[in-house]
Amino acid sequence: MSLPLRSLALLSAVAVLLSAGPPAFAASPQTVFEQVAGQVRELEVLDAAGQVLAALSAVTIGEAQVVTQCDLVDGAAGLRLRAEASPRVARVAHADVRRNLCLLDVPGLPGPPAVLATGLPAAGARVLAVGNALGLGVGVSDGVVAAIREIGGERLIQHTAPVAPGSQGGGLFDDGGRLVGVIRYRKLAGQNVNFAAPAAWIAEIAERAAAQGELREWRRQAVALEGEARWAELAALAARRSERVADDPEAWFWLAVASEAQGDWPAAERAYRQALVRAPGDVTSGLGLARARINQERFDEALAGARELLASQREDTRVWTMIGWIEIRRGQAPAAADALAEAMRLAPWNTGAQHLAATLAVNRRDWPTGVRLFRQLTRAEPANALLWIQLAEAQYGAQDYERALAAAEQLLALSPEHADGLLWKGAALSALGRRQEAIEALRAALAGAPASPVLAWLALANTYYALRLFPEAIAAYRQAEKFASHREAAQDSLGIALKDAGQFDAALQLFEAAKAKRPEDPFVWRQIGFVNAALGRSELAIAALEQSLKLDAKQAKVWHALLESYHAAGRPDDVRRVHARLLELDRVHAEQAYRDYLLPYESAR
């Protein structure tokens, strides 16, 4: 097997490293982590009621002062730093909104400050990322400096040390335990190509923040208007700034956000374009532009724009997620699955990509994949009702009815009267043969407001049908056929219920109408055959059953029905011919047919 040149180059590089022995490292990662762990703190963002909204990281850089990433703390109702003895209240002292760095004052904060590196690290240098990843407490990962990149006119440290949500604001340390950067989480790229703001910027925060007072106040107003969903006012605020500060990409970005929230997709597209003119390559604006195009059903343009982002941001999980969404909208399921798989490879905790991939799997009837992904999502977000609904649906599709019932019960534990929880509980109970309980649950679901009432009516109708309660089943199917999305399936089931209830003329009318729409569907022809056979119209039954078998010759039940109709028509040679064919498909049916229909002919000879 030949390897691509890139792989050969990688193997050569590995061989050189191995031949050269282990890389020089001033101290082991364990030693460095023990040295610096006390300098990195768990930072909690609080709401007005004191509840934790987000878990982040911060680095001690002076007496009673820490540095962190700014966008999630500036303007927060409350901030709390976890310390050895007791939590400490923190407040924003200086905010450099351009570089996304904040200094926080934390009175009484114990512990030594970090030692700041004096310059940028060299490419290839070993680094440790220390942060509160996933809110699990301060931990460490290691990697190397990939490069020093210039982005938006600023030089950032690109590194390969894995980071996760919660790591932002943590420290990137060199092999001597010096702070070389403040971690950013996926603001610019993906899991294994991450960025840090140089530590040298920390000394400039206060001075730069003083010069950005007007910008910070403007941003505070924009964030407040967004939080209160006052979109028209936000649009006006952003428009005024875009006129006053023409080169500010943020003004155009907020104008795009406000336009998007109001459903004005052409205006959102124009604003995102202007933001990108002023900040070329900005991923957030680029993704916004793709969304605007998607919502105008310009999928090819959206895909082209998203693929342009990959030129510089190939490791950005958000871009791959967007490509997956676009491919879903384009009806390209395999391409969507590949893009979403790449998004999840880059960031296994990317719940947006997981949710799209799980939904895509369910739509493709790939039940095992759907179940696996929705299980992961419910573990990550156990209070998310929608995820339990979708897990129940996937497990029901996989015919794992006990687990579908368990998922529905979990949802009902969160919200006892949730109509969708009751729907899937009823569907699972019916499949498990607990049909009276199913009827109670499904009636309760319909009394609420399930997201898909047609599914509740169909499940209720199927349950009544299984109990041979044909009048109730027919009434429920008639309710289901009112919904265009499932009308065909509801009418097919209604026809069967009418036939089994002895309402042959009504059943035949439905199936004849279906035949006009679906002349190549063997189901329709066989049902017409069954109804005519029940009415004693043997020749009409024979013609319909033969047509059904012409379309699908592997229907053992239809061959058996055709044999019965030939017998009723007094055509013994055809009975023998069909029996021979039935014997090839289903020996059990063939033996029963022989006893019932062929043996009398043989005895009469």
From TrEMBL:
It comes from the Bacteria. SMART domains: TPR (SM00028). The keyword S-adenosyl-L-methionine does not apply. The keyword Signal applies. SUPFAM superfamilies: TPR-like, Trypsin-like serine proteases. One of its GO terms (molecular function) is serine-type endopeptidase activity. TPR repeats lie at residues 249-282, 385-418, 488-521. One of its GO terms (biological process) is proteolysis. It holds the Pfam family TPR_19. InterPro entries: Peptidase_S1_PA, Peptidase_S1C, TPR-like_helical_dom_sf, TPR_rpt. Keywords: Signal, TPR repeat. Transmembrane segments: none annotated. Residues 1-26 form the signal peptide. This is Tetratricopeptide TPR_4.
